[in-house]
C-alpha cells in the first residue's frame, strides 16, 4: 500500500522564522564573537541572500572558510530554512541531523526529523532499523521538550498553543508509526489515537491508525474501519494523494465486506467518518450471521484432511499445476496457499509506474520466460520501489498470496517487497 507524503510547510516555516534565526547585528553586540571583519561580512551575506539557492551556497562557503565559527548552528538553521523553501527533503534531513550533532536538544530539528523520516522511509534501506530507532528517539525527545517551549515574540497565545498542539500530534504520530513498523500494534494504536485527537484532519495519521487496528489477528473491525473511512474522507492539503486514497478505499471496502458480508451500509460509514473524526460510542459494523454460524461449526466439526500436502507445492510449477487441476485438489491447494507469504525469483516483464514502480509483473516459469510479454505473477508492492526496474531484469520478491486466475494462469501477491535488487 502506497503511503502518501503530505509536507507540513507552514509548521516548519513557522519554526524557522519565529525567533530561531538570529540577526548578525544582534550577534555583533556580543564580546568578540567574530574571528575578523571578513567573517562578519560573510555571515551578513547569508542573512541578506535573496534566494534559497544563494543562501545555501553562501552558507557552505562560510562553513568551509570558518570551521571553528561560534555560529555553526545559526548557519545550519539558515540552510535548513533554504532547503525547506526548495522543498529538498533529503537536504533538510541531512541539515537537521547536523543541527542535532551541534545541539542535541535542537527542537526544530527534532520536529523536522520526526516528521520526515516516516514519510521518506525506504523499506529496502539497509539502515531501516536504525532509522526507525532514531525516529522513535526524536519523537520522545520532542514530547519531553514541547511543554517547556518559550513563546516567540510576535506570536499570540492562541497561535502558540496551536503550534504546540500540532507539534505534539506529529511526535505522537511518529512514535505510533515506529511501533506499527515493529508490529507492536497496541502501542501503535495508543500513540496514533493521541495524534488523531490532536490533529483530526491528518489523513495519513488516520490511515496508520487504521492499520494498527486491522493488521493484528483478529482485527478490531469497528475502530479500524472507521479510521480508514476517515482517512479516505479527508480533503484539502492534508488529504492522501489520489492514488493512495483509492487504494485505501479498496482496502477498507475489503475489510468491510469481510466483516459484514457485502458493501451495504459502507457509504453511510464513509459519510459519517467525513463528518466526525471518531465514531459514536454505539458504532458497530454488524458481522454477517452466516459467517458467525460457519465459525461456530468450525469449532464443533473436525478439520477436514486436505487432499494436497504442503510438500507437494515445492515449486512454482507445482503450484500452477495444482491450481489448474480443478475440483477438490484445486480448492485444497488454495486453502494452503491463500494469504501465505512466499518468496519467488522471477524476470521483470513490466514495472509501473516507471520512476517508482509499485506493480510488478514477472515471468516465473521457464516456458513463460520464453514468450515475450507473458507473465504469470503480479505483485503489488507495499511501498513504491525507490528506483526504476528495467524489463528483463532478474529479481527476487516476497509477498502475500492474494488471488489467482487458473487460465491463463496468474498468481497475485499483495504487500510485496523486493528482496534481491535487479
Describe this structure in words.
The chain has 422 residues and is an alpha+beta fold. The chain has 3 domains: 1-199, Serine Threonine Protein Phosphatase 5, Tetratricopeptide repeat, CATH 1.25.40; 201-301, no CATH class; 310-420, OB fold (Dihydrolipoamide Acetyltransferase, E2P). Helices cover 53% and strands 11% of the residues. It has 18 helices and 5 strands. The protein has helices at 9-15, 24-27, 37-47, 52-65, 72-86, 89-102, 107-120, 128-145, 157-181, 185-198, 203-214, 221-233, 242-260, 266-275, 289-300, 316-323, 327-337, 366-369; strands at 341-352, 359-363, 377-381, 394-405, 410-420. A 5-stranded mixed beta barrel has the order 1-2-3-5-4. Helix 3 runs antiparallel to helix 4, helix 7 packs across helix 9 and helix 9 runs parallel beside helix 11. The longest helix has 25 residues, at 157-181. The protein starts with 8 loop residues before the first helix and ends with a strand. The relative contact order is 0.07. The model is unreliable at 1-11 and 17-26 (pLDDT under 50).
Reconstruct the topology from this structure.
Layout: H1 9-15, H2 24-27, H3 37-47, H4 52-65, H5 72-86, H6 89-102, H7 107-120, H8 128-145, H9 157-181, H10 185-198, H11 203-214, H12 221-233, H13 242-260, H14 266-275, H15 289-300, H16 316-323, H17 327-337, E1 341-352, E2 359-363, H18 366-369, E3 377-381, E4 394-405, E5 410-420
Parallel strand pairs: 3-5
Antiparallel strand pairs: 1-2, 1-4, 2-3, 4-5
Helix pairs in contact: 3-4, 4-5, 5-6, 6-7, 7-8, 7-9, 8-9, 9-10, 9-11, 10-11, 11-12, 12-13, 12-14
Amino acid at each position: 500500500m502506497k503511503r502518501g507524503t503530505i509536507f507540513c510547510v507552514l509548521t516548519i516555516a513557522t519554526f524557522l522564522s519565529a525567533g530561531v534565526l538570529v540577526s548578525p547585528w544582534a550577534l555583533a553586540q556580543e564580546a568578540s564573537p567574530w574571528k575578523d571583519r571578513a567573517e562578519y561580512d560573510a555571515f551578513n551575506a547569508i542573512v541578506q541572500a535573496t534566494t534559497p539557492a544563494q543562501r545555501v551556497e553562501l552558507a557552505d562557503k562560510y562553513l568551509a572558510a570558518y570551521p571553528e565559527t561560534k555560529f555553526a548552528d545559526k548557519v545550519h538553521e539558515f540552510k535548513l530554512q533554504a532547503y525547506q523553501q526548495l522543498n529538498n527533503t533529503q537536504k533538510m534531513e541531512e541539515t537537521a541531523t547536523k543541527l542535532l550533532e551541534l545541539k542535541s536538544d535542537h527542537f526544530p530539528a527534532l520536529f523536522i526529523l520526526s516528521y520526515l523520516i516516516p514519510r521518506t522511509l525506504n523499506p529496502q534501506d539497509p539502515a531501516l532499523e536504525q532509522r526507525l530507532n532514531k525516529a522513535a528517539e526524536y519523537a520522545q525527545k520532542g514530547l519531553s521538550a514541547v511543554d517547556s517551549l518559550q513563546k516567540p515574540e510576535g506570536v499570540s497565545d492562541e497561535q502558540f498553543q496551536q503550534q504546540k498542539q500540532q507539534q505534539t500530534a506529529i511526535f505522537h504520530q511518529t512514535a505510533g508509526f515506529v511501533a506499527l513498523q515493529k508490529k507492536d500494534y497496541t502501542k501503535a494504536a495508543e500513540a496514533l489515537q493521541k495524534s488523531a485527537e490532536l490533529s483530526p484532519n491528518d489523513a495519513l495519521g488516520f490511515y496508520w491508525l487504521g492499520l494498527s487496528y486491522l493488521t493484528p489477528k483478529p482485527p478490531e473491525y469497528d475502530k479500524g474501519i472507521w479510521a480508514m473511512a476517515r482517512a479516505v474522507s479527508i480533503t484539502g492539503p492534508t488529504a492522501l494523494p489520489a492514488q493512495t486514497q483509492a487504494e485505501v478505499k479498496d482496502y477498507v471496502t475489503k475489510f468491510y465486506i469481510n466483516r459484514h458480508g457485502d458493501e451495504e451500509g459502507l457509504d453511510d460509514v464513509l459519510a459519517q467518518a467525513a463528518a466526525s473524526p471518531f465514531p459514536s460510542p454505539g458504532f458497530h459494523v454488524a458481522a454477517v450471521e452466516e459467517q458467525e454460524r460457519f465459525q461456530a461449526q468450525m469449532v464443533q466439526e473436525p478439520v477436514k484432511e486436505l487432499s494436497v500436502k504442503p510438500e507437494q507445492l515445492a515449486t512454482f510449477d507445482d503450484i500452477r499445476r495444482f491450481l489448474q487441476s480443478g475440483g477438490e485438489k484445486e480448492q485444497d491447494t488454495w486453502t494452503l496457499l491463500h494469504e501465505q507469504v512466499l518468496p519467488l525469483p522471477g524476470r521483470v516483464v513490466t514495472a509501473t509506474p516507471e520512476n517508482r514502480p509499485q506493480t510488478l509483473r514477472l515471468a516465473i516459469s521457464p516456458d513463460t520466460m520464453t514468450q515475450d510479454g507473458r507473465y504469470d505473477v503480479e505483485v503489488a508492492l507495499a511501498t513504491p520501489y525507490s528506483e526504476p526496474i528495467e524489463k528483463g531484469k532478474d529479481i527476487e520478491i516476497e509477498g502475500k498470496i492474494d488471488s489467482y486466475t487458473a487460465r491463463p494462469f496468474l498468481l497475485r501477491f499483495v504487500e510485496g517487497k523486493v528482496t534481491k535488487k535487479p
